[in-house]
Amino acid sequence: MHPIERLRYVARASGGDQRMLVRETASAIADLDLDPAGLVVACRRIVERHSTSGALWWLCSSLLAASDPFREAWGLADLIDDDATPAHLVQLLPDDATVCVIGWPDLAGEALMRRGDATVLVIDTNDEGSSLVRRLQRVDVEAEAIPAAGVAAAVAASDLVLIEAFAAGPDGALCSLGSHAAAAVSYCSEVPIWLVAGRGRRLPEPMWKVMVERLAAEGHDGWNRAVEVVPLALATAVLGPDGLVDADPSALAAECAMAHELLRMSAM
Predict the structure, then answer these.
(1) 38 with 129, same domain?
(2) Residues 24-41: what's their mean pLDDT?
């Protein structure tokens, strides 16, 4: 597939593993011979199409700050593949714990499959939860799909709640719809809640603010969006590539340079 066609494929893709989107985008850009202006336009269009993907914002920002972006693209793809977040989660999960998750979180889902001994309660708010339950059951992990109305009961029955970030800034994270409710119930019920923020999800504050503003400008009611903002104050801890740390703003420090070029919309 020609690199331009690959970029168009990524632009049209919806959902999916953020690591896969980064790999496909990075490999397509690495094969192109764009001038600096062309790279800026390509990166703007990528983040406009995937406005809630922190990993793609991280990739594009890192490329625009690089002296040799086309060589850097391969290194960034390897870096996202080597994200240690799932491995840390495998090691840190309590033995035989009952764990509550929302939808199908890429990193947490991988860790739960690898760990094997957890009982997983999957809040099915995005029509992906049932698919995760079937996938877990195929590897002999005990799992049950819970309707959105049962979020309070599921959290109360859990030893740990995992909320996965699509993107994060100093004061919160974009997570699957239903995550805020689960986090609030966890906070009130004193059930530990870990915010899973994998490689590339933590953005500079100006970039984070623009991402949230663009989400609000889409005009959808909050309950009709696929994602919502979860305040960091509701989390007990943050789990990322460096392990588990206390939930404070330093835990969500930016992983990439600030690329002001991405804050402007491309001319369509």
Answers:
(1) no
(2) 82
